[in-house]
Amino acid sequence: MKTILFALLATFYIPAAFAQDSVEVGSRMNTFKLDLTHSLLYRNAYNLSWERLTKQNQSLGITVGIQEFPKVFNLGENIEGKRSDDSGGFKLGAEYRFYLKKENKFAAPRGVYIGPYFSALNFNTSRDIIYTGEGDTREARYNAKFNLYSLGAQLGYQFVFNDRWTLDLVVVGPSITRYNAKMRLEGDFEFDSEDVQNEILDALIDKFPGLDDLLEDKELDSSGRLNVVGIGYRYQFLIGYRFGKKFKKN
Q: Model's pTM, two decimal places?
């Protein structure tokens, strides 16, 4: 998946780098953006961002969105998930950007930027399962919830075309991230629920890019919870539309 994503970024980056020099950029205050990154990773992901210039070379950004957890049918040994599921989730985020005046030929929001960011991701998913271990077949239902809270710093570049359209690439974005998971099995069954819950957790974690390495060999506690703090990362690909009254250019 990483290879595909970076290939897409390169596809847009190379032609844009050659095309932008002939465009004079005005300074409109606002940009609405559609985040295409999560659309590649999750189901029904619609995340919108708003960037507002606050000073000559600085801006504030807010992100809100909804997204669903990917479907997972192979949930572990002897565990099969039914095709129907109930999934949902949301994303909230904020960031502050400093456009590097010495590195940029044009006024913000075009050019190289750095700055801090915070994001909160929530996923919930429920599904009926069939367990065929121990020589018996039992049905149950799992309810799982994941929360990821990240505080980090990012480096990126934003292209502007015809004073209206933007292509925003976050290329480096390390963070300190808290990963929280909760799992609960419901139903009339006699198998060991803790073992089955941990198998399902492993299968779900595999759907998070990079998370499987961090949470390798981690297990839910007796209450079905898991809390881990580790290193996260961010890369984004957004397209946007600029609007608002122009103010004085540099």
A: 0.78
Structural domain span for residue 131: 2-246
User: CA angle, 118 as apex, 117 and 123 as ends, to 5°?
Assistant: 140
* C-alpha to C-alpha distance for 218 and 208, rounded to whole angstroms: 15
Least confident among 60-74, 85-99, 195-209, 230-244: 195-209
Q: In 1-137, which ranges are E strands?
A: 28-35, 43-55, 58-68, 79-99, 111-131
Which CATH number fits the domain that encloses residue 18?
A: 2.40.160
Cα pseudo-dihedral 33, 229, 77, 138, rounded to 10: -90
CA distance to 9, 10, 19, 158, per residue, from 16 (Å): 11, 10, 5, 10
Q: Six-digit token pair at 135?
A: 């020589």
Overall domain count for the chain: 1
